[in-house]
Amino acid sequence: MNTRLLGNSDLAITPIGIGAWAIGGGGWNGSMGPQNDADSIPAIHAALDHGLNWIDTAALYGLGHSEKMVARAIQGRSPRPYVFTKCERVWDTDRNIGACLKAESVRRECEDSLRRLRVDAIDLYQIHWPEPDPDIEEGWTELARLKEEGKVRWIGVSNFSVKQMKRAQAIAPISSLQPPYAVVRREIEQEILPFCLSQNIGVIVYSPMYAGLLTGAMTRERVANFLPEDWRRNLPGFNEPALSQNLEVVEHLREIGRRHGRSPGEVAIAWTLNHPAVTGAIVGFRSTQQVEGIVGAAEFRLSRAELSRINDVLKQEKAS
Predict the structure, then answer these.
(1) Rounded Cα distance, 50 and 101, in Å
(2) Type and span of the H or E element at 172
(3) Do 175 and 201 contact (CB within 8 A), yes or no?
(4) Which residues pair with 83 in a beta bridge?
(5) Closest by alpha carbon to 111, among 149, 70, 157?
(6) What is the DSSP code string of 61-80?
(7) What pTM value is reported for the model?
């Protein structure tokens, strides 16, 4: 499988990587609902067997549980996939989630992640959210120290604006940005992606299938039956009138995919990978069956005519 260098790092990553949000399971504020741990490891193994070479997780996912599942999945794998994780989201004994970028907290979080992941160094360590904003400099300075000490190999940011990235750059280079990006969520195209391209900051986009909405398996009934804890209930794209418009976009993605033997989700992922600033896309799996329906996006590319058709559809839906 082809690989691309991630920004100024030496990480040669496959076009898609394994997203470990959902395998964090339920019972925390931000979950996608319950997950059977017995499904998680075979799903990760299936994706690795297909040639994917990186996993993106975060301490937040399952309040540490996702990192522990990743550790179990990569144990004994050779070569070991790259492991990316994040700091800044913290929680207390009552599982209340907060934000902290104080140096002491960042260092403690790094040590905790190293222990849960059972690795000597984290390949890419990222600030999850730029919060609290006044502490960005303190947090980023500590990430740079952790890199100098060899506890992390490369450092990146997630959900940062251009202005916030410039503040971090004044302290130490940024290897990557992790922003949301999907065919129905394109805000970063105007300013953020051109900036990253000009600065050699790698981009690994998350939610390229808009939290599962663009997979082709999502229906109004399924959305209506989301569990109360499922964070997707609050996403604008899962509520009317956007839901109907987005499901219509899915049908056009399905039509394009049918001609190539690809799923709507694979078409959606391939669309994000077409942007020259995008290095890779994070794709979440819950089971081996889901891997089989998505992993082909790593090699699939859309034609110019198909890209034009998708843009025409988006304009029509926006105008309706």
Answers:
(1) 37
(2) none
(3) yes
(4) 55
(5) 149
(6) TTTTHHHHHHHHHHTT-SSP
(7) 0.93
Q: Transcribe 186-242 into DSSP letters.
A: -GGGTTHHHHHHHHT-EEEEB-TTTTTTTSS---HHHHHT--TT-GGGG-GGGSTTH
Q: One digit per residue, pLDDT tens: the chain, 320 residues?
A: 899 999 999 999 999 999 999 999 988 888 878 899 999 999 999 999 999 999 999 999 999 999 999 999 999 999 999 999 999 999 999 999 999 999 999 999 999 999 999 999 999 999 999 999 999 999 999 999 999 999 999 999 999 999 999 999 999 999 999 999 999 999 999 999 999 999 999 999 999 999 889 988 888 989 988 888 887 888 888 989 989 999 999 999 999 999 999 999 999 999 999 999 999 999 998 899 889 888 889 999 999 999 999 988 888 877 66
CA pair distance 218, 165, nearest whole angstrom: 35
> Rounded to whole angstroms, how far apart are CA atoms 278 and 262?
21
SS3 264: helix
Query: pLDDT at position 320, please?
Result: 63
Give phi and psi for 134, each to the nearest 5. Answer: -60, -20
| Percent with pLDDT over 70 in the chain | 99
> In terms of Cα–Cα distance, which of 203, 155, 207 is closest to 185?
207
Interatomic CA distance for residues 48 and 77, integer angstroms: 9
- In the chain, what's the furthest Cα-to-Cα distance? 54
Per the structure block, which two tokens stand in for 283? 């794709």
Report the alpha-carbon distance of residue 204 to residue 126 in Å, rounded.
12
Residues recognised as catalytic: 61
Other C-beta atoms lying within 10 Å of the C-beta of residue 236? 10
